[in-house]
Design a protein that fits this description.
Aminopeptidase; disordered N terminus; single chain; 5-stranded antiparallel sheet; globular; 3-stranded antiparallel sheet
């Protein structure tokens, strides 16, 4: 039996979110979400966010699960609604692991991007044993790189990934541990 036909597995949970693995059955929803102009303008436009490209990309996400990585469906616990995708994945052939997130616009500006990014950073460092995690965003996606900064990631410069000029941020495990420890001490 093809392991990728199995029931989706919850990867992580945060206070308001549950992240579960994508399945091929999620493809129509993923295409619809990423076909919205407000969303695709930050994800490479229609060149990258079209039915053919997303159908190919979901196979990459499914293959990442074998390594404990992969984009996941974000579920709003309060309603059970699928509100976006987030997760950890290899950043092209750089050797880096990238945290990424995309939300339906109705859920923007509610702290969800920050909550999911922090959850994935914690998972990457404390469950997967990663030493460094990066994040990228097109310059126009101010909300995304503000989330990276709020998570303690530092700006590394402008780079090109996925055929796009992007801002690159990164954080090391030791930096993340200091941030988490400082927040725990304030509680």
């Amino acid at each position: 039996m093809d392991h990728r036909k199995a029931i989706a597995i919850t990867m992580i949970e945060t206070e308001r979110l549950k992240m579960r693995q994508l399945t091929r059955g999620d493809l129509p929803w993923l295409i619809a979400m990423r076909s919205r102009p407000e969303v695709y303008k930050y994800l490479g436009g229609t060149r990258m966010q079209n039915a053919e490209s997303i159908t190919k990309r979901i196979e990459f996400y499914l293959d990442c699960y074998e390594k404990g990585l992969g984009q996941c469906v974000m579920i709003w616990k309060e309603t059970g609604e699928q509100i976006g995708c987030s997760g950890l994945q290899p950043l092209e052939d750089t050797g880096d692991i990238e945290v990424g997130y995309s939300l339906q616009p109705e859920f923007w500006r509610q702290g969800i991007g920050y909550e999911c990014a922090l959850g994935w950073l914690d998972h990457g460092f404390n469950q997967l044993g990663l030493e460094r995690i990066v994040a990228i965003a097109v310059k126009e996606n101010v909300g995304s790189w503000k989330i990276m900064e709020k998570c303690g990631m530092h700006f590394e410069g402008e780079q090109e990934h996925y055929g796009l000029p992007v801002l690159c941020y990164a954080i090391e495990r030791a930096e993340f541990d200091k941030i988490v420890g400082a927040k725990a001490n304030r509680s």
